[in-house]
Amino acid sequence: MTEKTTGASYAAAGVDIEAGDRAVELMKEWVKKTQRPEVLGGLGGFAGLFDASALKRYERPLLASATDGVGTKVDIARQLGVYDTIGHDLVAMVMDDIVVCGAEPLFMTDYICVGKVHPERVAAIVKGIAEGCVLAGCALVGGETAEHPGLLGPDDFDVAGAGTGVVEYDRLLGADRIRTGDAVIAMASSGLHSNGYSLVRHVLFDRAGMSLDRHVDELGRTLGEELLEPTKIYSLDCLALTRTAEVHAYSHITGGGLAANLARVIPDHLHATVDRSTWAPGAIFDLVGKAGSVEQLELEKTLNMGVGMMAVVPQESVEVALTTLADRGVEAWVAGEILDRGDHAEGATLTGSYAV
Asked: What stretches of 235-356 adopt beta strand conformation (E)?
């Protein structure tokens, strides 16, 4: 009599195909909420389909694309067991990069990598992505959920995404439109957004020994709630602004801070100056600075300091721009101006002291 043996299997190696199928079923209702008329087919195909004939209304359509992730903010979500907000961050990081050139967001795909597929958890992540896509006006046309046992722990995960938008060639925004005397309008962030969390975690957890469930009076809530505040999605606000006012350029304030990101859209012969006294950064920025004895310039190189998006507009468009943003519930103010380069070595600098 021969001894019965059990062969290796994908499941034994840690990959649960049935759990993956269950996750897809759970996420379908959320993906459906993001659909635009140009989207063909449903979830489950090998590729997402978008009807490009919709671009015929453009004289010379330019496709804009971007890809990004959320960084170590996902570890905060993991520790708190909150998975339905991190998708907002992902959409913001991708689609707000695309809208900077004036492009309308069209569609997005996501990639979710997990140590073990927990269907409800994956569906919650996709729910957040879908809600973010609605806020950005784009469709979620597909994605991938990958299970990597042995590489990631059972509760570990990461997310990434890629998006596509379209802009008419003669409406492309950027450095070549900016002129001396233009105003720099700042739009308030919702908090830290999705950059600098490696510094934030090091300072608040490793050095200050704070916990996520600690209530912080200055924040008015727990530290965990503050750190998981979703990144504000400006896409539709920026598109509305370009319809009502003349806009020369946008700058999405992400990794590298305000000055470095603004400098990316400033032409070589000009200089942007931003006055810190025009706003007061939120309490979380002061908390990080004090808890880690982080110098101001280091904070400004790493965090957005309360500004998530900037618009460069001619002076005659300032009033209508501020009115448009206020009508859409976006806190905005004139924070600086564009000057001749002169002796300035940098494309953008911050001046003055923050308001208290």
From this structure: 249-252, 270-275, 307-313, 332-340, 348-351
